[in-house]
Amino acid sequence: MKKNPSPLNLNGTGYCASFNFRRTARAVTRLYDMALQESGIRSTQFAILVGIAKNQPVCIGALADVLVIDSTTLTRSLRLLQKEGLVAVSNRAAMRQRFLTITAKGERTLGHSLPAWRAAHAHFVATVGAEYWMELRNELERLAHVVGGLEKPQKDVRALMPGNS
Q1: For the chain, percent helix, then strand, then coil, each to nearest 5?
Q2: Phi–psi pair at 96, nearest 5 degrees
Q3: C-alpha closest to that of 133 among 142, 122, 125, 144
Q4: Is the C or the N end of the chain the one with fewer CB within 10 Å?
Q5: What CA–CA distance (Å, rounded) separates 60 from 98?
Q6: What is the tens place of the pLDDT at every residue in 130-151?
Q7: CA distance 46 to 7
C-alpha cells in the first residue's frame, strides 16, 4: 500500500481494535462464505440458523443478544431467511415479542451446509493450530463480555475523554 503523506497525525490508528477486528472478521467470513457457497447461504445466515436451531423457539431480542447484533440488523436478515422459507416468525405474543423457529426447509438447508462448514472450520483450525484457536476463542469470548460492559450512553463516554472534565 502506497504511503500518502497527510497533514493529520494518524500515529497509532493502525492499532485500532475496531479496524483490526473488522479486517480479521472479513477475512474469516470470506473463508467460510466460500465454503458455504454451494449450500446457498452465507456464513452470517448460517450463524443465525444455528442460533435459532439451538435455542428455538427464541425471541428476536434474545437471539440478538446471543449473536451480539442489534435487533434492527437481525430483523433485516431474518426477513430474507423468512422469505426463503428457512425460518418462521410468530405473531407478537405476550410482552410484544415475536418468536423464531427454524422450518423444515431451514433444517434441510442447515443440514446440507454443515459438512461444508465443518470442512472449512477444520481447515481453519488446522491452519492456525488447535491449541492456539481454543486459547484465542476463549479470549475472544472474554473480550466480548468485557467490551459489552463498556457500552454506556454516549454522554458517559464523552465525560471520560481527555479534556472533558
Answers
A1: 70, 5, 25
A2: 55, 30
A3: 125
A4: N
A5: 6
A6: 999 999 999 999 998 888 877 6
A7: 44
